[in-house]
Amino acid sequence: MTTALYRRYRPDTFQDVIGQEHVTAPLMAALRADRVTHAYLFSGPRGCGKTTSARILARCLNCEQFPTDTPCGQCPSCRDLATGGPGSLDVVEIDAASHNGVDDARDLRERASFAPARDRYKIFILDEAHMVTPQGFNALLKLVEEPPEHVKFIFATTEPDKVIGTIRSRTHHYPFRLVPPDILEGYLGRLCQAERIDVGPGVFPLVVRAGGGSVRDTLSVMDQLIGGAVGGEVDYQRAVALLGYTDTTLLDSCVEAMAAADGAGVFRVVDRVVTSGHDPRRFVEDLLQRLRDLLVIALAGSEAGPALGSLPGDELSRMEGQARTIGAAGLSRAADATAKALDQMVGATSPRLQLELLMARLLLPEARTTAQPAPPTGRPA
């Protein structure tokens, strides 16, 4: 049984945390200067490094080399808190989703009153802190405001607005962000090289898109693809099939038929989507993404690269031709109609019918305009 990638490659130092330099740099500066406050609030989307950073901060604070911004990795505290380590009695992680009431807050206050068993500080990491009830937060308020010298708090949450203001105002708030695609793709490349996995062209953009900017979600998707790899290789077609995305050749056929006003070609694509078992709504979602990319190319020209991510050269060349043929105005109208159709397909009883109606609208732009009643021709009585 193998350990999940996101657990095996969990960072042990701030230098290893990717895409969060706006958080890690000031934290490291505060650690080096020994200007560490008593309570922190880490907020941001799931899987972007909040709990990991809280653990790294705890390692730094209890490292024998403190003040330091990098755990030594050799002292008992650093070894206990390292990835795969047994943990430390003096660093307490609490799942606030299941320990969120007044009684839990009272228990935490009692535990905080005792000195650390071995290390410099007793550190409480409250994960999912937004799940604590207002009454639970109020029971913690005095302790968070004036904790003993040996106590530190780190709150981690995806919804900082649900942490009551009196708690937020007593913490240093660090907002984490989703990681940009180019950083994630580079990270995946290094990881797959370390795992000795060959990855085909176009796979990393699919994985990054499926992960939505979350490092943990992205690694989970990559782990799934690696688990199903044949001969140590992850190829594009297998990734498309497993992740449920639409093959680029199908999108090319659809867009080129639209550009040529080829109704038969467009409805052949619809038939291929349905008979091959694709989800019509996912196809429309992928078509909207393609129209967006074409619109970026039409408007930005040769400067569109950063907004598109990494695309194979032949695919980019085809898309440039499609963008020139349809034009920015036509792409904008098509994207607008596709976005509206995507909303209408939620809960639709006949997704194929909705898809066919969308294709008709894209072929007949005038069908999207509302006819105005003709003005009266007779004279008033």
TrEMBL record:
<dbReference type="GO" id="GO:0003887">
    <property type="term" value="F:DNA-directed DNA polymerase activity"/>
</dbReference>
<dbReference type="GO" id="GO:0003677">
    <property type="term" value="F:DNA binding"/>
</dbReference>
<dbReference type="GO" id="GO:0009360">
    <property type="term" value="C:DNA polymerase III complex"/>
</dbReference>
<dbReference type="InterPro" id="IPR022754">
    <property type="entry name" value="DNA_pol_III_gamma-3"/>
</dbReference>
<keyword id="KW-0548">Nucleotidyltransferase</keyword>
<dbReference type="InterPro" id="IPR003593">
    <property type="entry name" value="AAA+_ATPase"/>
</dbReference>
<keyword id="KW-0235">DNA replication</keyword>
<comment type="subunit">
    <text>DNA polymerase III contains a core (composed of alpha, epsilon and theta chains) that associates with a tau subunit. This core dimerizes to form the POLIII' complex. PolIII' associates with the gamma complex (composed of gamma, delta, delta', psi and chi chains) and with the beta chain to form the complete DNA polymerase III complex.</text>
</comment>
<dbReference type="GO" id="GO:0005524">
    <property type="term" value="F:ATP binding"/>
</dbReference>
<dbReference type="GO" id="GO:0046872">
    <property type="term" value="F:metal ion binding"/>
</dbReference>
<dbReference type="InterPro" id="IPR008921">
    <property type="entry name" value="DNA_pol3_clamp-load_cplx_C"/>
</dbReference>
<keyword id="KW-0239">DNA-directed DNA polymerase</keyword>
<dbReference type="InterPro" id="IPR027417">
    <property type="entry name" value="P-loop_NTPase"/>
</dbReference>
<comment type="similarity">
    <text>Belongs to the DnaX/STICHEL family.</text>
</comment>
<dbReference type="Pfam" id="PF12169">
    <property type="entry name" value="DNA_pol3_gamma3"/>
</dbReference>
<dbReference type="InterPro" id="IPR050238">
    <property type="entry name" value="DNA_Rep/Repair_Clamp_Loader"/>
</dbReference>
<keyword id="KW-0547">Nucleotide-binding</keyword>
<dbReference type="Pfam" id="PF22608">
    <property type="entry name" value="DNAX_ATPase_lid"/>
</dbReference>
<keyword id="KW-0808">Transferase</keyword>
<protein>
    <recommendedName>
        <fullName>DNA polymerase III subunit gamma/tau</fullName>
        <ecNumber>2.7.7.7</ecNumber>
    </recommendedName>
</protein>
<dbReference type="InterPro" id="IPR012763">
    <property type="entry name" value="DNA_pol_III_sug/sutau_N"/>
</dbReference>
<comment type="function">
    <text>DNA polymerase III is a complex, multichain enzyme responsible for most of the replicative synthesis in bacteria. This DNA polymerase also exhibits 3' to 5' exonuclease activity.</text>
</comment>
<feature type="domain" description="AAA+ ATPase">
    <location>
        <begin position="36"/>
        <end position="184"/>
    </location>
</feature>
<dbReference type="InterPro" id="IPR045085">
    <property type="entry name" value="HLD_clamp_pol_III_gamma_tau"/>
</dbReference>
<keyword id="KW-0479">Metal-binding</keyword>
<dbReference type="GO" id="GO:0006261">
    <property type="term" value="P:DNA-templated DNA replication"/>
</dbReference>
<keyword id="KW-0067">ATP-binding</keyword>
<dbReference type="Pfam" id="PF13177">
    <property type="entry name" value="DNA_pol3_delta2"/>
</dbReference>
<keyword id="KW-0862">Zinc</keyword>
